[in-house]
């Protein structure tokens, strides 16, 4: 196996300086002392550090910064926090900055001092996203941009159709006969794909769908009310909660309904979160690899800015979510 190449972060850590200071020193820019510059250069030689040419191109001929656009309410969802950290980590390794963009109203223009944009779970109905797509700078999306898939430069997407089928097959194999779901709005490609996969699986297995839609980042009360509605059907013996942050409220609803999760009710979330391992029982979910997902978006944007993306249409890279099976979806015998 080839040895991992040293990154800018490695050089900075070994020299005892920030990545920004290391970048300044390696580029011969003002802002660091001669002693610091000499130390960084010496460490770079020792580590056989090679300058990332695409990133160097950004820093010298452009702004050296990218704009990150997250959905409204993203600060309440762990997935988007992890995604953002993945973007920032990958950018820092390349000596680039990340600017979190505000949401724009119709007629406003995206911030000027960035070289390109990363969006996630975006829709062209968002004025800010529309402005970015029309701006001319590269746009890389995490998941397809609903209603504008061909307008982006590149996308990193998950195979949600295969993932949803796998989860439903798992629940059926555990004996679930009637599976209800709490679905997000179909305003994003992700929400539409998950809903379509659930409908297709239900039809192919001869089962009537039991679905209630809730917000993209729902409130606790909203999740509990929707779960109450689904669990009012005594035949429902499994529940999948798709929007982030829904598992704990769904567990509360099951308790109020007199259900025992893991016995007469199976429960699974679609988006895994650290809290799922702390709940009782621990909740089955998909690891969407949010940090790596965000990092891959940044790498695609750097390639696009360097002119290495290739092809006439959008570049698409597919990832496969990993199903993490826990106690909530494993049928236990009644005592």
TrEMBL record:
Keywords: DNA-binding, Transcription, Transcription regulation. Residues 6-60 form the HTH lacI-type domain. It holds the Pfam family LacI. GO terms for molecular function: DNA-binding transcription factor activity; transcription cis-regulatory region binding. Signal peptide: none annotated. InterPro entries: HTH_LacI, LacI/GalR-like_sensor, Lambda_DNA-bd_dom_sf, Peripla_BP_I. This is LacI family transcriptional regulator. The lineage of its organism: Bacteria, Bacillati, Actinomycetota, Actinomycetes, Micrococcales.
């Amino acid at each position: 196996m080839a040895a991992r190449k040293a990154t800018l972060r490695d050089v900075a850590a070994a020299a005892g300086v920030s990545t920004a200071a290391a970048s300044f020193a390696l580029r011969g820019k003002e802002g660091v002392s001669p002693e610091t510059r000499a130390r960084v250069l010496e460490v770079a030689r020792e580590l056989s550090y090679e300058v990332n040419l695409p990133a160097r191109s950004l820093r010298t001929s452009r702004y050296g910064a990218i704009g990150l656009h997250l959905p409204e309410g993203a600060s309440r969802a762990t997935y988007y926090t992890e995604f953002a950290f993945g973007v920032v980590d990958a950018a820092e390794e390349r000596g680039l900055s990340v600017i979190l963009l505000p949401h724009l109203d119709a007629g406003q223009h995206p911030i000027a001092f960035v070289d390109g944009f990363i969006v996630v779970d975006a829709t062209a109905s968002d004025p800010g996203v529309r402005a970015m797509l029309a701006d001319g700078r590269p746009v890389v999306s995490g998941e397809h941009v609903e209603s504008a898939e061909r307008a982006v430069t590149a996308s990193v997407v998950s195979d949600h159709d295969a993932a949803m089928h796998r989860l439903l097959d798992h629940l059926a194999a555990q004996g679930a006969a009637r599976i209800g779901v709490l679905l997000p709005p179909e305003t994003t490609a992700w929400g539409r794909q998950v809903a379509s996969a659930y409908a297709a699986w239900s039809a192919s297995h001869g089962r009537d769908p039991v679905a209630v839609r809730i917000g993209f980042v729902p409130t606790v009360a909203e999740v509990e009310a929707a779960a109450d509605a689904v669990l009012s059907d005594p035949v429902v013996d499994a529940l999948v909660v798709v929007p982030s942050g829904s598992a704990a409220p769904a567990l509360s609803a099951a308790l109020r309904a007199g259900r025992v999760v893991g016995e007469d009710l199976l429960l699974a979330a679609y988006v895994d979160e650290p809290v799922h391992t702390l709940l009782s029982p621990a909740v089955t979910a998909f690891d969407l690899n949010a940090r790596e997902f965000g990092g891959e978006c940044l790498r695609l944007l750097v390639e696009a800015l360097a002119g290495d993306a290739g092809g006439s249409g959008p570049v698409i890279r597919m990832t496969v979510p990993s199903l993490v099976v826990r106690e909530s979806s494993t049928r236990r015998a009644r005592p």
